[in-house]
Amino acid sequence: MANSPLTPGQLEQLADMIAERVVKQPRCLGKAELAQKLGVSTSTVERLMAEKKIPVIRAARRVLFDIEAVLAALSTNNEE
């Protein structure tokens, strides 16, 4: 069995499977979940993303956040 390249459809399917596994990790949150944890609106989370004040994990088409990394980044930003 030779290794054959993946088709675009197979790559998309693989990316979705990986994204699902990443989402299942307890530390990774979506935008709405992060906003709720921080007690802010989703537009505030989007602004923090745009200003590169919080780290973002891009998995396929999903935007995820490692809550520990976000809290550390916000703590560092507040000390400056």
From TrEMBL:
| Matching SUPFAM superfamilies | Putative DNA-binding domain
The entry lists its GO molecular-function terms as: DNA binding
Q: Which Pfam families match?
A: HTH_17
Q: Which InterPro entries does this chain map to?
A: DNA-bd_dom_put_sf (IPR009061), HTH_17 (IPR041657), SinI_DNA-bd (IPR010093), WH-like_DNA-bd_sf (IPR036388)
Pinpoint the Helix-turn-helix domain residues: 32-75
Name of protein? Helix-turn-helix domain protein
Organism, scientific name: Rosistilla ulvae
